Amino acid sequence: MKSFFKCYFVIYTALFSCQEENRFKIDHHQLAKEYYNEDAEWYVKNIPFFECSDKIIQDVYYYRWELFKAHIRNVGVNEYVITEFIDHVPWDREPYCTINAASMHHIYEGRWLKDQCYMDGYINYLFYKGGNDRRYSESIADATYARHLVNGDKKFIVDQLDSMIAIQNRWADHYDSAKNLYYIPAMPDATEYNIAAVDASGGKGGFEGGEAFRPTINSYMFSNALAISKIAALAGREKTSKQYQAQADQLKNNIQNYLWNDDLVHFTDRYKVNNQFVKYWEFIRGRELAGFAPWYFNLPDDQPKYHQAWKHLKDTSQLLGKFGFRTNEPSYQYYFKQLAWFNGKRSSQWNGPSWPYQTSQALTGMANFIQHYDQSILTPSDYVNSLRLFARQHLLPAGTINLVENYDPNFGGPIVHEYWSDHYLHSTFNNLVISGLCGIQPSEGDSLDINQIIDSSIKYYCLSGLSYHGHDITVLYDDSGEKYKIGKGVKVFVDGEEVRLTQRRNSFRVYVGKQVRSITTTNPVNQALNISKHRFPKISASVNTDSTYQLNDGRIWYFTEIKNQWSTWNSTNTDDWVTIEFDGPRNISEIKLYPVVNRKFMLPQGIKFESKMNNDWKSISAQESPTALKPNSVNRWHLPNTSTTSIRIRFTHTDPVAFTEIECF
């Protein structure tokens, strides 16, 4: 893969053509080659392509798709999950290595992928395979409905309804019927050491405890109830639809009536816990970024009273830092007081540091506020500048692009950057570009609204190859008409044809047409896959046997900062091997290898295959082989259909070689 890491952005010219008067195209293959080199094929098939006059936003956009792809994990036949930490951490859900806290962000981002298999697999896992274990607060039903608005697959989302209802009802264990609000401690809200938790400990702790009625969990439960109501209506279950609409209405009223703090002019926590330090039902004593969570779901009424909260995100003495959003304000007594340490270094806290999780949450709320509210507090420049701040957080001091856990909003740079924190997927970015900057607003019907959020600093952008209700959408903006040579302003193309725009206040509406079938790949059984590290298939190797499990764990990435590979490092041989042993005969006709190439590892000079049956090893001659091995990408060999109990792959090499995955079909 061409490195992102030598400079802030890749300078290139995106090819485009206007071959006929009403047709427009940018060259997806050229852009994919610029950013992903030999791994371009997957991106061409899956992502919407984007170019913009702001090169840092553009570069981070393409990094975020590489990041997202690296977090897609194959866990079974047509089964996929999206991980939060790229590698296993002790607090994830084994053997899948998932955490439900960021699932809403994963789905909002992943809904823009063209191939539906990844989000179909992930959502099925969350609702029917225990993935949404409620270890953390969540708004997964809402995100699933938001994804439905993009792909329009009614049957799929209706099939999730009963599980959505069951999970929603289980949250009754966090419901206070006296206040008709939900409560949660800090840690299960994924925000340890927040104001409620720190103050409830007397300023001495905050990892656990701090039970409070929070704007976050109550907004999540509102959004899930509203999504269930809408999905039940799609299913023709009118009674259920009305029941959950009523639940959403009650929560909205109670959030506005009880969690709005007139003194702080913000949505804030009220304590559930009652002890010597804090009292039940009292407000916490400071503003937090979490108070913008209601706008993530367009929850607050369009009233000037609530609009005023957004002033706090423009004030550099409050929630806006020089290098990003603060999670609470400098006026708080324990702002940035370090209470947690790991190996002598600062550990994760939400008492001031800037976290991508809540930054993307607040930016989504900001986009909704600008697009859907009649207000005069925020301008498009506020959004564009905040998006730029977030984009720049992806750039580490050395200039490499690598999203980690959290950042210093006052002085810049990472705070928590442990080995496992590299390339961390706990937020959105591309959804902020697609639905915010470019203004793509999906709907249930046959139309699409375009409500872009740009200012004069954005000279042009083009979002091309967006899959919406099965149609191919391109949206572009050219302030002068000189970039794309097809006129000034906004242009929209549906399936290659320019369409008429209907002005609607601050947005445009285009007729897209009836739903057509989206791409959903059905994959064969990967006979080599084993995510549990136990039983079969078993992998052995000539060297470095402690890392062979990484060859068939369903994870594929090529980042150098965090290892996911088996290699021949320190081998004294020029011929090394890997063997995959099955628990019985398997028919194998295709093998895929994913070689890792960087400063340490090169491509092998030769690859040979052998099969075993009845303790007898035999060579296999491939019927079709790569003309040349591709580094950091998939390589395919088609074999004669072979019944075997083991496959051995031999590598001849002079330099060390490494592979991130082996698949057998």
List keywords for this structure.
Jelly Rolls; alpha+beta; 2 domains; seven-stranded antiparallel sheet; 26% helix; five-stranded antiparallel sheet; 665 residues; single chain; Glycosyltransferase; 30 strands; disordered N terminus
Global outline:
globular
Low-confidence stretches: 1-21
What is the CATH domain class of the largest domain? Mainly Alpha
The number of distinct helices, counting runs of at least 4 residues, comes to 16
Tell me the major beta sheet: 7 strands, antiparallel
Which structural class fits the helix and strand makeup?
A: alpha+beta
Q: Determine the CATH topology of the largest domain.
A: Glycosyltransferase
- Give helix % range: 25-40%
Please give the domain count. 2
Count of β-strands: 30
Distance between the termini: 26 Å
- Return the CATH architecture of the largest domain: Alpha/alpha barrel
Mean pLDDT: 95
Task: Quickly describe the structure.
The chain is built from 16 helices and 30 strands. With 665 residues, it is α+β, with helices and mostly antiparallel strands.
Describe the structure.
- By secondary structure, this protein is an alpha+beta fold.
- It folds into 2 domains: 390 residues, Glycosyltransferase, CATH 1.50.10; 127 residues, Sandwich (Jelly Rolls).
- Helix content is 26%, strand content 21%.
- It is built from 16 helices and 30 strands.
- Strands 24, 25, 26, 27, 28, 29 and 30 form a 7-stranded antiparallel sheet that branches. A 5-stranded antiparallel sheet has the order 3-18-19-20-21.
- The protein is globular and about 80 Å long.
- The N terminus is likely disordered.
